[in-house]
Amino acid sequence: MTDRLAELCPHDRFTRRWLVPALGVAMTAVAIFWSLGGPIRLGIRIYAEQTLIAVLMMGLAVCFLTRRVDRSSEVTRPIPVYDYLLAAIALVYGVYLTIVFTDLSESVFFRPTQAIVTASIGLILLVEALRRAIGWSLLAILLAVAFYALYANLFPGPLEGRAISLRRVVNFMVLDSAAMAGAALYIAVAVVIPFILLARLLMATGGSAFFADLSAGLMGRYRGGAGKIAIVGSALFGTISGSAVSNVASTGGITIPLMKNDGYRPKTAAAIEASASTGGQLMPPIMGASAFLLAENLQVPFTAVIVAAIVPSLLYFFSLFIFADLEAGRRGIRRVDPTRIPKLGSTVSRGWFLLMPFAVLLTGLFAFAMRAETAALYAVGTLFLISLLRTYAGPRITVRGLIKALADTGQTAVEIVIICAAAGIIIGLFSLSGLSFGMTFFLVQLGQTSLLLLLFVTALVCILLGMGLPTVGVYLLLATLAAPPLIELGLQPMSAHMFVLYFGMLSMLTPPVAIAAFVAANMAGAPPMRTGFEAVRIAWPAYVVPFLFALSPSLLLAGSPVENVTAAVTAAAGVMLITAAIVGYAGGLLTPLLRLTIAAAGIALLLPPAMIPMAPLVYLVAAAVAGAAWFASRGAKGTAGSPLSAPLGEGAKK
């Protein structure tokens, strides 16, 4: 990076090396100051909206300085004069709006000229930054919703509403506390940024290397160890990064070549990495930014989201493990070369302290019922004190390393902050224009015909709207558009919101726009579209399990203890059998008839008890049929072995 910066002119080098990191540090510092209750402790009267606007405008300035008009972010490209001008306008405007927001938002009708000029400037800056950071997808949705608000009287049927003047729409989008500086942006600043700081500090102290070595030590000695290392490493890294694409880019550089070298096909190696990295957004205890927004929307503790996510996420990663193991058995893929596997004991002794922040986080959340951001800051403080003494690499972290972690936190948060500001406007316009009521009425009418049909339509809408959008943006939109009709028809609120969260996430894997899969395919040298379809095949439980917990919330641990345990155990058995049928391998190669038999037994076991009559009998019959088919498969031609087989499994290559 330093060599590439040297190619720039002096003022561009200064901007990249000093100004942008300084803005990142300032964004992080303001967010942490607010999350710690700094204004109250110091007796300073500052409203939440003022803090949010200050962080947002610094984020817009960073966006203009780091992303060009054509949306590229090439370091060696000069920064145009107009981008410096836009960044300066964003900063000056941010100071102005931070000062006048509370008074101006309450006196819009008394100072119409000042209000419309102020709101117009802010809207233009946000729209351009959104286009540069995300592209046209979310911006197109914003423009469509704004168009509806302006011309709602022209729409037919349940979508007909009252048109709103252009002046009022523009003022509302920027100056109303239910729009740009609303709840979505508050979560991004006050909650998400502390967790991003925790992730960045973990990386600065060697967390990514520790998790990579830990997963290699745990899984490298087993059949298909390369695939299992990728799954464990991506799950561990994903739960702190919260971003599928960055997870693929970070861990895929190591895991994808390792899987290809050990015998996985390029498209399969890329698909395994993409699937594991995407699932990391749903892996407790941290999950992704969407989980915090989900807790805020439902007005429940973050611990409730963690509990609800446990079983579905475990089923998802259990399926990935089974796939990696059976694919290795089918293709005779060896275990990882022992010389490339770090000693587990040595890894744990060098990096055990990196698990302490997670212990502090979980203790704060569950034992002391802390707010998510408070528990995260305690975890950050713990890791900070530890880093002053040691890191995974050995020496303690330097002041420069700490400052870089703060700067990286702010720069990482830029995209999320911009998305949440735009999503807040969209959510506000949904309510202001009455579109949310009209869409809910339409979808409820559809659901009265068939709840299952509504779930299918909702899943399709989630995936389509999610194409090209980060999960957090998809969830914010769908929590307003798609979740209320499901709740209206009797689904538990947690089930409805988890349903749209899952299918919003799946847009990362589902062609034709499968960003995580395409990034992994590029790293593996595999065809992107084939990799996307391979990812769908591997991650199949994520497309099925949401329907199950929507119709029977025992998979979200919302039933009785007996129902919860029964649903989890039988679902795990069903996932294993269906995955075996998809791979075409169990104890040996499966004939088409055996694949169909095992798949049918798996489907019966996957269904929760509340969804089928005489469930115990059905489960016993399914288990017996699956057992018979499994033993029959062992006589087929192929590599022998069982799921999660021992290191020296019979079929492993020498």
The percent range for helix content is over 70%
Decide which structural class fits the backbone: mainly alpha
Mean pLDDT: 87
Distance between the termini: 42 Å
- Tell me the overall shape: globular
Helix-strand pattern: HHHHHHHHHHHHHHHHHHHHHHHHHHHHHH
Helical segment count: 30
Question: What would your notes on this structure say?
Answer:
This protein is mainly α and 654 residues long. Among the domains are: 2-137, no CATH class; 570-644. 72% of the residues lie in helices and 0% in strands. Helix 7 (136-150) runs parallel beside helix 19, helix 8 (166-175) packs antiparallel against helix 19 (399-433) and helix 17 (356-367) runs antiparallel to helix 18 (372-387). The protein is globular and about 80 Å long. It starts with a helix and ends in a 21-residue tail after the last helix. 54% of the residues are buried. Mean pLDDT is 87; it is low at 638-654.
At a glance:
This protein is mostly helical and 654 residues long.
Topology diagram in text:
Elements: H1 2-5, H2 10-35, H3 38-42, H4 48-66, H5 81-106, H6 112-134, H7 136-150, H8 166-175, H9 183-204, H10 207-219, H11 225-241, H12 244-262, H13 266-279, H14 289-298, H15 302-331, H16 344-351, H17 356-367, H18 372-387, H19 399-433, H20 435-449, H21 451-466, H22 471-481, H23 483-488, H24 493-505, H25 515-524, H26 528-538, H27 541-551, H28 561-583, H29 592-606, H30 615-633
Helix pairs in contact: 2-4, 2-9, 2-19, 4-5, 4-19, 5-6, 6-7, 6-8, 6-19, 7-19, 8-19, 9-14, 9-18, 9-19, 10-11, 10-16, 11-12, 11-13, 11-15, 12-13, 12-25, 13-15, 13-25, 13-26, 14-15, 14-22, 14-24, 15-27, 15-28, 17-18, 19-22, 20-21, 21-24, 22-24, 24-27, 25-26, 28-29, 29-30
